[in-house]
Amino acid sequence: MQEATFLILTALAAGSQHGYGIITDVRELSGGRVRLRAGTLYTALDRLRADELIAVDREEVVDSRLRRYYRLTPRGSQLLATEAARLQANAAAALSRLDLAGGTI
Amino acid sequence: MSESAGLEGRYRRLLAWYPRSFRREQEGEMLAVLMAGARPGQRRPGLLETADLLRSALGMRLVLAMRSLGPGRRSQRWTDALALFSVVAPLFLVIVAVLEVAVPYRLPPESRLLVVLGWHEIGGLSLLRVPFFDVAVCLQVVVAVCALLGWRRLTLIAMAASVLYWIVYWRVFVYGISSVPDALQLLAAGAYLLGAAALLASPGPRHGRHLMNWRHWAVLLPAAAFVQVSTLLLYATSPIMFRGLRSPDTSGYLVLSVVFAAAAVVLAVASKLNRYFLLLLAAMFYPYAMQLAFSGAFRSSSGVFRPGFGTDLLRLPTPAHLAVLFVLPVLLACWVVLTAIRPGRSRVMMPPGQEA
C-alpha cells in the first residue's frame, strides 16, 4: 500500500472527513512531510471508492459549496488494520535488530 | 471580476479536463477543496497544482477507458464491436482485392520505356498472373465465406492458413519486387491479427453478421475506394517503377485519396457507429497508413503535401520498421485476448481468509 493511501485511510479511521479535512489531517499525521494536492487526493478517493474501502458518509452545503464526507467501510478498516500490523511488525523487527547490533537507537 | 471569481474560473477550466461523469459528481466538491486550499489573494492556480490536476484528470480518463474494457467489465458494445469486426474485416479485404483487380494503374504516356517493356498497366487483371496473388485472394474469400456463415473455428483455421501463406510469400519476396499491392498485404496483416483476436474473444461472427447493416458499408465502401486510389498513388510515386523516368503527375490521385478518406471519416462520425468497432478498424488501417506516411506517397508532383520520409517500411523490414508497422494491431490484439481470458479479480489484495 502506498504511503498516501495509508495516510488517507488513517485520516478516516477516527471518523468521517471531507476532502479538505483529509488534506490537512494527512499533513498533520505525516508531520508536514506529505502534502496531498486536490488532484492526487481525488484520484485516490475515486480508486478507494471503486475498491469499496471508503464510502460517502453524508453531504453538506457550507457557504454555498458542497462538502462530501467520506468514511471507512468495514473492508477499509480491515485492510488498514492489517497494513498497520504489518508495518508495526516490520518496524519492531528493525528496531529489535538495531538494538541487538549495539543499542544505538 | 473579483480575484476569487477569477481563480474559481481558472480552476473550473482545469477541472474541465476530467471525464464528464466524474465532473458531474465531484466538480463542486473538488472546487470547494481547491478554493479552501488557495492562499489569500491567489489569482491563478500554481504550476505544481496545475500539473497535479492535469495528471489526475488524464489518469482518470485512462482508468475509465480501462474499466470499460477490462476483465469482468467488458461492455456489451465492446463485445458487439469484436463480433462485428470478426465478420466485417474479412469481407472488407475481399472488396479491396476485387478493387485491386478491377481498377488497374494505367501507365502514363511519359513512361514509354515501361510500355516498351510490355507493361501497359500495373495491377488489374495482370495481378492474376502474379505468383501468390490468386491463392492469397482465394484464401481471403474462404475466410470471408466462413465468417459470413458464422463458422468461428473454420474462420480461424482459414485465417491461420492465410497467414502461413503470407509468411511463405514474405520469405520468398521480402527483399525483391513483388506485385501484390502493399495495401492488400498490410490490411490483411492487421485484419487477421485483430480478426483472430476478435474471434477468440467475442460471441462470434454469427452475432456480428446480425449486427451488420448498411451504415457500416456506407463507411467501408469509401474506405475501400481510398485504399484503391492510394494504392494507385503508391504505384505512381514508386521509385522502383519509375527509376530514371519522369515521375507522372499524381495530383489527381492525391486529391481523390484525401476526398475518399475524408468521406469515410465524416460518415463514420455522422452515422454514430460503435466507437470500439471504429477503434478496431483504425488499428486495422494503421499498418497501411504507416506505409503510406513513410513511403512519401503524398509527395505529390504539385508539391501540395510533403510529409513522407521516403522509406519503404514493408520492403526494408528491419525490426524497427516492423515495429512501426505493426505495433498498434499487435498490442490491441494482445489486449483483446488477454482481457477475454484473464479471470476478473479485485484490485485490492485482502489478506488470506479476510476476502469480502
Q: Structural class, from secondary structure content of chain B?
A: mainly alpha
Name the poorly predicted regions of chain B. Answer: 298-309, 342-349
Q: What oligomeric state is this?
A: heterodimer
Strand content of chain A: 15-25%
Largest sheet of chain B: 2 strands, antiparallel
Strand order of the largest sheet of chain B: 1-2
Low-confidence regions of chain A: none
Strand % of chain B is under 5%
Largest sheet of chain A: 3 strands, antiparallel
Helix content of chain A: 55-70%
Q: How many DSSP H or I helices of chain A?
A: 4
Q: What is the number of domains of chain B?
A: 2
- Helix and strand pattern of chain B: HHHHEHEHHHHHHHH
Task: Compute the separation of the termini of chain A in Å.
Answer: 27 Å
Q: Biggest interface, which chains?
A: A-B, 26 and 31 residues
Task: Using brief descriptors, characterize the structure shown.
heterodimer; A: alpha+beta; three-stranded antiparallel β-sheet; B: about 350 residues; mainly alpha; 2 domains; 2 strands; about 0% strand; elongated
Q: What do you see in this structure?
A:
With 105 residues, chain A is α+β, with helices and mostly antiparallel strands. Chain A is 59% helix and 18% strand. The radius of gyration of chain A is 16 Å and the shape is elongated. In chain A, 29% of the residues are buried. The model of chain A has no long low-confidence stretch (mean pLDDT 87). Chain B folds into two domains: 3-67, no CATH class; 72-341, no CATH class. A two-stranded antiparallel ribbon of chain B has the order 1-2. In chain B, helix 4 (76-102) packs antiparallel against helix 8 and helix 12 packs antiparallel against helix 13 (319-341). Residues 298-309 and 342-349 of chain B have low confidence and may be disordered. At the A-B interface, helix 2, helix 3, strand 3 and helix 4 of A face helix 2 and helix 3 of B.
List the helices and strands and how they pair.
The complex is a heterodimer of chains A (105) and B (356).
Chain A: H1 3-13, E1 17-18, H2 19-29, H3 38-50, E2 54-62, E3 65-72, H4 74-100
Antiparallel strand pairs in A: 1-3, 2-3
Chain B: H1 3-15, H2 20-37, H3 47-69, H4 76-102, E1 105-106, H5 112-116, E2 121-122, H6 133-149, H7 152-173, H8 182-201, H9 205-211, H10 214-236, H11 251-270, H12 275-295, H13 319-341
Antiparallel strand pairs in B: 1-2
